[in-house]
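Pasting two entries for a bug report.
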Amino acid sequence: MLKNHIKNKLNVMSGSRSNEQIKVISASLENELSKGSVSFMITSPQPSSDTAVISAKVAAAMAHQDKKVLLVDGNVRMPLLHETFEVSNSTGLVDTLIWTDPEKMVKNEKETNIQGLFLLPAGANIEYPGEVFKISKVNKLISYWKEIYDVIIFAAPAAIPYSEPYVLAAGCDGVIIVVQKNSTKTEELHKAKESLERSNNRILGVIYQTK
């Protein structure tokens, strides 16, 4: 079952290569946090459930450093994180984006079983995500969340076929790209990286997922 497949990968302290990279990236973000709250997006060149796995691991690692973390499931096409953390997906990011004033919106963030880590699920199913994914709305939300959380992490859909990652990344301080062993092609990685950089997105690192 996909939910169990993801949950079985969430042990940040295990010895896989990706976990070591996550700890290195989490440590490097400490310098960014000294300047204030940070927001970043995690994506992959092609669709993969590993992006949700890595996003959850990074969020957990930051929470374990006594940071208040908001993990946002930005993959409204294939939401997984509500199952991973066993919370309701009845409301979430899509519903939040519909509101024009963040201070008046219904709070859809859910507490998780990890202290300091909150999850905003994907929320309502929507046929055309582009109808609600607007840069101005996302930027307004990020500014609002930075007053509440130390770290905001967007788990995004794949960067090559979809437009939502570029909307989410526009308001973030950086991007992390997840690469799957024996799956991600070199040209796909280069294409995703170049496309994000052309949109003035800062690449914080690449995580190599081997399992």
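Entry 2 (this is the one that rendered wrong in the viewer):
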Amino acid sequence: MQFLKSNYPKGLYFYPTGNKFLVSFVKPQSFKPSQITIGTAENESLKDFKENSKFSKLLYSTIKENLDQCEYTKALALNQKSGYLNINDLRVGAIFGRVNDPEDIFGSVLIKDGKIDKSTFEIMPTHRLTIYTEN
């Protein structure tokens, strides 16, 4: 199957289908057209990216269900002790102790006595799955 690789820092792959591309994180050797993709785009600049709502729902539900299993997030919760903790998209790093840009935050969750209450996870509506890049 033909594909294009993006300039995006963590490797997006574009698989042609008709007059658009399926956009995926899955490498060519593992990709199957029947797999869920993150969305579609007319070209690799992602200027016209259309998010796949099935993927987004799966992503956010997976994050919510596993927040209390992630050692990194548990360590942050222990350090913070209480309040709301941002759950950052680690593809874009932030300086420790600083808040990521809103488009790089998956959501937030309430911390009580250093423990994560995953039932309180709220999705950040400004989170973006991709970025637009000029070619």
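Dev reply: Rendering is fixed now. As a check, the viewer should reflect this: Residues 4-51 form one domain.
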